């Protein structure tokens, strides 16, 4: 037994023979493949054959991406459309009620007021003047919480304001038209204003009221125009007073909406009329009477000789003439400005000041030497 047999076992000689045979069979190994150079024509042909396959793959990817995008858009569109419809229906079914009495108005009384118009979904009260309440330190400064607590505990400041406003949401849209017919109806001695949730703003049927006192109320201003213009109560559709959010007082201006356009000239005659011991301004509402730089446009209609016609344009021209006369009267007359040319001196500011003081001292000494301040006999 050889040394290899003692180490690897008895089959070492057979393994040795196999190893020797392995090296002897080198001629049976596979030959190395030879790569022949490809001509340009064959390369172009293969590229043309592969191009439609690549295009098809790209088209498939694009179609898949488009399908995903359209699916996402459709899903988003349905969600957005549902939200928009929901918002529109809520707004269309909501009405605004203004100039309600403060002492007797609650959510239940507001719902019962419009119960005959249709089923009421919800009501809410806004612009409630509250006295204020002390909140815990961790909720200090929370105005919404303070207003809610004051409203629930009936801590209302009746001296600040005597009216409130509210909103009524109906279950059906048909109930809104019935509720709008209750405009200018009296509730607790106040003429309420009933309008849609988005207020109707028509500058052609409105006038601007300025220089209003702080204690202006909608009902009193409406009566001022009804009596001054000899109109019915229904001719004044609504009065909108701009108030401060915190104090609930009038900011000094408001708007009055009329039923027809031809009522505007008669309402403009109340310009500089006295309301609550103050002269108020009644002007045309909107930008339709202004030019490029705020100047009045030239009137399109020229009245004939001997014809007297009170129009908005005539009143506008009178106001512009009065304003120009007031500006000329209040303008301060001044002479032409004298241009003083200062000579440049080489002195510093301190030296120039000392020189000025010395000059003044010499002048005073000269006047003293001539007898300044002495009594003459």
User: In sequence order, what are the helices and strands, one letter per element?
Assistant: HHHEHEHEHEEEEHEEHEEEHH
> Which strand order do you get reading across the main beta sheet?
2-3-1-6
- Strand-residue fraction? 15-25%
* Rg, Å, rounded: 47 Å
The largest β sheet comes out as:
4 strands, antiparallel
Helix content: 40-55%
Low-confidence stretches: 80-87, 288-294
Alpha plus pi helix count: 10
How does this structure look, described?
This protein is of the alpha+beta class and 377 residues long. The termini are far apart. It has a 4-stranded antiparallel β-sheet with strand order 2-3-1-6. It has helices spanning 3-8, 12-24, 40-92, 107-113, 143-152, 174-180, 218-229, 264-268, 312-330, 349-369, and strands at 94-101, 120-126, 163-170, 186-187, 190-191, 193-196, 206-210, 236-243, 250-258, 274-275, 278-279, 281-284. Mean pLDDT is 76; it is low at 80-87 and 288-294.
